[in-house]
Amino acid sequence: MASLISSLLVVSILLAVARLSAASTTRHYKFDITMQKVTKLCKSKSIVTVNGQFPGPRIVAREGDRIVVKVVNHVRYNITMHCVHHSVPHPNEPDLRLQLHRNGPERHDVVARPRWFNADPEAIISQALRTGAGPNVSDAFTINGLPGPFYNCSKKDTFKLKVKPGKTYLLRLINAALNDEFFFSIANHSLTVVETDASYVKPLDVDVVLVTPGQTTNVLLRTASAAPNASFLLAIRPYATGQGTFDNTTAVGILEYQNSNGRSSLKNIPLFKPKLPALNDTAYAANYSGRLRRLADAWHPVDVPQAVDRRFFFTVGLGADPCPKNQTCQGPNGTKFAASINNVSFTMPTTALLQEHYQRRPHVYRADFPEEPLFFYNFTGTPPNNTFVEHGTRAVRLPFNTSVEVVLQGTSVLGAESHPMHLHGHNFYVVGRGFGNFDPVDDPSRFNLVDPVERNTVGVPVGGWLAVRFRADNPGVWLMHCHIDAHLSWGLRMTWVVDDGPLPNQKLPPPPSDLPTC
């Protein structure tokens, strides 16, 4: 599936802070999507790149600028440009990932984490979908495209972050390894979380940051006042909650202090390693996520809906499909893995949903997605005997500016695990979370409606639930899905159809005149 290519592509957009009086500019960029031969772990292969770069290039612009990007696809895979933190209408399959950033007065460094496969990722996912099994795990994780010295034949491919003493650096952490959540830490250095998914948070001092697939986190790194006679590893390790096989390796880079002449050396000096949580440390993950709070002040107001027009209760989890006749399947008990929301596994249409919605031809989808499960059971306890899912292209239709509350309830069907859920076209506020089954009577009384963290991607706790609120003020067709690529491929997604508003700027723009026909 082409969406798996997204774990190999990261394109960063850097927005420089501009004075309010500065005139806006239209900035033009061209992305050529090409195959490029790359060698990692002593293996050479061709991968999909943007302008021949891995990770991809970044766009530099000032706040208020207009950005025009021309994408020319030279490869045999379909490519979609997905702009995460600005509301732009787009198709429902995020194949190319863009990340937005804002620049500040100090130096900034981007730390991105794609996975590396020695085999062809397209062949891996095709085999998994054909056999019904989980996909093979990656051969390495990378930091800015470099696996680091802990992997065979990779010592020279090590990311180095060079810093000066007595400085503050802003590190932008992007999890582009879309089957794995990550713990991130730098030896002997604390980090201050200041931004999540392009929304400011109250400064949070931590030693370890958790970043789920599709999330971004900005942290401040304050260096020592004097250059120590040492170097320090920065490391990523998976946070694994599922029962399947996963890549349990650790990728590292090196934090180097420059001396007075601007040079740094790793010869004959100590190298310190960070202390990372255990691979399954759910207690740390829950504590970290629960401490994040929106920076709620006059300059950064919180617009969490205090009243709700529509409430939804969505179960998110795994399931199964029967094995086709005359075929041997390698999923649970001879079935094929599937995934669903409210037991509905999403079927990809052959025609773009956005195009059908604009042309008022809704026969491609049904606007009857269930607001709650059709069958209630102990979601985090013993699962039902029947684990089969239904299939359909179904959506929830919302009038413009509807205030929405969604409770995302994890299930134990085929094993409980965390699900990083991502909503296109909107940010949401995480107003509540907990373990076990959501209690509709008691749990809402503990919702945080004052300073909840604002995100577009959030991990549903393993064996637990999470509540979000958002305002449907962006017309169009918007996908909500699990950001674990395997689960996405198995159907853990649904769509919201948001109708036009009354004002001209609240209406869906027409498709371009040169839109290709299928």
From TrEMBL:
Keywords: Apoplast, Copper, Lignin degradation, Metal-binding, Oxidoreductase, Repeat, Secreted, Signal. Binds 4 Cu cations per monomer. Its EC number is 1.10.3.2. PROSITE patterns: MULTICOPPER_OXIDASE1 (PS00079), MULTICOPPER_OXIDASE2 (PS00080). The keyword Secreted applies. It is found in: Secreted, Extracellular space, Apoplast. GO terms for biological process: lignin catabolic process. Residues 33-83, 116-260, 380-500 form the Plastocyanin-like domain. InterPro entries: Cu-oxidase-like_N, Cu-oxidase_2nd, Cu-oxidase_C, Cu-oxidase_fam, Cu_oxidase_CS, Cu_oxidase_Cu_BS, Cupredoxin, CuRO_2_LCC. Gene3D superfamilies: Cupredoxins - blue copper proteins (2.60.40.420). Its cofactor is Cu cation. CDD domains: CuRO_2_LCC_plant, CuRO_3_LCC_plant. Pfam families: Cu-oxidase (PF00394), Cu-oxidase_2 (PF07731), Cu-oxidase_3 (PF07732). GO terms for molecular function: copper ion binding; hydroquinone:oxygen oxidoreductase activity. It is an enzyme of class 1 (oxidoreductase). It comes from the Eukaryota. It catalyses: 4 hydroquinone + O2 = 4 benzosemiquinone + 2 H2O. GO terms for cellular component: apoplast. Residues 1-23 form the signal peptide. Lignin degradation and detoxification of lignin-derived products. Belongs to the multicopper oxidase family. This is Laccase. It comes from Zingiber officinale. The lineage of its organism: Eukaryota, Viridiplantae, Streptophyta, Embryophyta, Tracheophyta.
